[in-house]
Write a structure and sequence with these properties.
- The chain contains five helices and two strands; from the N terminus they run αααβααβ.
- The protein is mainly alpha-helical and about 160 residues long.
- It folds into two domains: about 45 residues, no CATH class; about 100 residues, no CATH class.
- The radius of gyration is 20 Å and the shape is elongated.
């Protein structure tokens, strides 16, 4: 009997935890922060999430990463933004190869406290698992693609 009660309690707790971890975008809930934009637009810009000096460092690290392939890309020469001068970039601007997701600067970005805080608010839990499989490269006027917004592996968790 005690084992049955414990299992029922654990199941109820698990269901309640799951319910709390879900950001419901339907209805009239107002959050008063970036989640309102996420609910309305499917994306949110969180100004100041990464301090400017670190954001610029990450940008420079990315440019250096691209230049270190020695294919002719030069961050100061817009004419070098072409497939022949860059590592493999798919049609959506994604760099999926070369273990890019494990570059130190990529880990630093996903470890930014305000980035983590935003995801904790979306999922209503500090218990997060991070997956970062690619880096995106889009240069204004050079790659024409439809912008792809938020995508969850399990949409039922956030809708």
């Amino acid at each position: 009997m005690a084992a049955t009660q414990a299992a029922a309690t654990a199941t109820a707790h698990s269901a309640e935890t799951e319910k709390q971890a879900t950001l419901h975008l339907k209805g009239s809930t107002t959050f008063g922060d970036f989640r309102d934009d996420l609910a309305r637009d499917g994306y949110a810009v969180i100004k100041g999430a990464v301090p400017r000096d670190r954001a610029e460092k990450y940008g420079n690290d990315f440019y250096e990463y691209l230049e270190n392939f020695n294919l002719g890309y030069n961050r100061n020469d817009p004419s070098t933004i072409k497939r022949s001068k860059l590592p493999i970039v798919n049609e959506k601007g994604m760099i999926l190869h070369y273990a890019v997701s494990h570059e130190n600067w990529v880990w630093q970005i996903r470890s930014e406290p305000n980035v983590i805080d935003a995801f904790e608010k979306v999922y209503n839990t500090p218990d997060l698992i991070v997956s970062f499989d690619a880096v995106n490269l889009i240069s204004r006027g050079h790659i024409k693609i439809k912008i792809h917004f938020f995508q969850a592996s399990d949409v039922s968790r956030v809708l």
